Amino acid sequence: MNNSTIIDPFGFREYDARWLYPKHINLQGIENLGRGLGTQIINHTKKNNPRIVVGHDYRSYSEEIKSALKKGLISTGCLIDDVGLSLSPMVYFAQFNLNTDAVAMVTASHNENGWTGVKMGIKKGLTHGPEEMKELKEITLNEKFIKGEGSEKQINNFQKIYKDSLIKNNKISKKIKAIVACGNGTAGIFAPDILRGIGCEVIEVDCNLDYTFPKYNPNPEDLKMLHAISKSVKDNGADIGFGFDGDGDRVGVIDNNGNEIFSDKIGLLIARNLSSKHKGSIFVVDVKSTGLYSKDKVLLKNNCKTIYWKTGHSHIKRKVNTEKALAGFEKSGHFFFNQPLGYGYDDGINSAIQVCHLLDKQNKKMSEIIDELPNTFQTPTMSPFCKDSEKYNVVEELVNQIEDIKNSKTKIDDQEIAEVLTVNGVRFSFEDGSWGLIRASSNKPSLVVVTESPTSDDRKKKIFDFIDDLLQKTGKIGEYDQKI
To answer: Which of 152, 175, 194, 453 is the most buried (most CB within 10 A)?
Structure first.
């Protein structure tokens, strides 16, 4: 690695590559990342000149990063199809539509300004998981690059092809009045057009592109963004509010009363809606999701099964693929629809469309539909700081502690732990369906904490206090990003 190359090894995360630019990666580092990715694609596809579709989000520096990445890819022999300013799902869609060998999308999704990254994949509809990231890291840091002659071409008007593909089979008959909020991120030039195209009356909130993100980060888990959508729903008497993240693969939903509906509950409503037509289906949800799926009467009546799996868009995408599940839902707002509804990848706008179908099919308001689900008390996703170098060890220690607590039948808020799930950190459940989760964040130096109780708000808090107490005792936890 020459002296001018900066590339922090920690940027190769579990399923995303993310860095602070230019502090933890510079353009030379990005170029090497392109060489590494090109080499990896050639090794996997056994082609000297594989085709790769490339796009970028609307950050001030994304184009220069894309140029450096393309330079690296081309030096290995890759042929680039550049679709320009994109959403991540548009790039995933392009891999099917243009039949390319791989994808690379320059985005840091909802991370704050200063971050950059690349979402990439080789097998259609899937993105890099831990094994592929580890392999890419090895090739890149050890500079085991293949040399070749590549080239690039611009694909014009691909935005229209993507928009039309979503509008075509999704027309609705009801006039749904929808707030569409994009936090000044890239979804602003896609979501309003597509939702209007299927038949919604759209009211735009912060849909003009502004890479300074003047109001808040385009992140549907950000409370500021949710409050802005809620206000707009109430002011306009809207039927529904949608908030999209920076690269358009996630959506947040607000009901007609201005109340936020956590994405895992939206997923359950969509699963119920789909289950009557697709009996015997499998659904995959992440470990941060509500416990309601496993006991849901509608899903059980329609002979559907739910699998709880590792958090992270790559993990859920893969599980949906290997289990041939109809859909997958993540608490963070990533939803995955497999054939016949989609190609298996996460697309926030397609998710919003499925919610519109739900409203179109039932003669009820969103608040009435959500009221049909059993009530649960649920925390937002809370992230206490924990160093990247320590977070996995901290979680491992806590897994052992919680298994000991279960085995010794120690009670928490007068209840024994009934079940411990360790596919991703530790999720421990009680007889009444309450649960708590502690896991390491895959893309930031922090942990992730969620608790839920179908019994009471107080129990939800007691479980959080129990977790927080365990965390503080480790001495390795910093400030929370938000806390109940």
So the answer is: 453
Q: Do 281 and 367 lie in a common domain?
A: yes
The band of 1, judged by pLDDT with boundaries at 50, 70 and 90, is: low
Long-range contacts of 132-137 (CB under 8 A, 24+ apart): 132/40, 133/12, 133/13, 133/14, 133/15, 133/17, 134/12, 135/40, 136/12, 136/17, 136/36, 136/37, 136/40, 137/9, 137/12, 137/36
Contact 194, 200 (CB under 8 A): no
> What is d(CA 193, CA 201) in angstroms, rounded to the nearest whole number?
10
- Residue 194 maps to which CATH number? 3.40.120.10
State which of 246, 274, 298 marks the end of a domain. 246
pLDDT of residue 188 exceeding 90: yes
pTM of the model: 0.88
Tell me how far apart the alpha carbons of residues 411 and 417 are, in angstroms, rounded to a whole number: 7
Residues 14 and 142 in one domain: yes
Phi, psi dihedrals of residue 83, rounded to the nearest 5°: -95, 0
Task: Please check whether residues 93 and 45 belong to one and the same domain.
Answer: yes
Residue 443 lies in a domain: yes
Question: Could you tell me if 194 and 300 lie in one domain?
Answer: no
State which residues form the domain around 391.
377-474
DSSP string, 53-121: EEEE-S-TTHHHHHHHHHHHHHHHTPEEEEEEE--HHHHHHHHHHTT-SEEEEE--TTSPTTEEEEEEE
Q: Residue 440: which residues within 8 A CB-CB, separation 6 or more?
A: 386, 391, 392, 394, 395, 425, 447, 448
pLDDT digit string (tens) for 273-311? Answer: 999 999 999 999 999 999 999 889 999 999 999 999 998
Q: Are residues 152 and 164 in the same domain?
A: no
The count of structural domains within the chain is 4
Question: Same domain for 334 and 429?
Answer: no
Q: Quick check: is 402 in a domain? A: yes
- Whether 55 has a pLDDT exceeding 70, the answer reads yes
Rounded distance, CA 97 to CA 119, Å?
Answer: 18
Residues 14, 144: one domain?
yes
Q: How many CB atoms lie within 10 A of CB 114?
A: 14
Mean pLDDT of 90-95: 98
Asked whether the predicted pLDDT for residue 9 surpasses 90, the reply is yes
Last residue of a domain, one of 179, 211, 246: 246
Segment 253-276, tens digit of pLDDT: 999 999 999 889 999 999 999 999
What are the structure tokens assigned to 297, written together? 């009467």
**323-361, pLDDT tens digit by residue?**
999 999 998 889 999 998 999 999 999 999 999 999 999
- Asked if 204 and 362 count as a contact pair (C-beta separation under 8 A), the reply is no
- Measured distance CA(146)–CA(74) in Å, rounded: 11
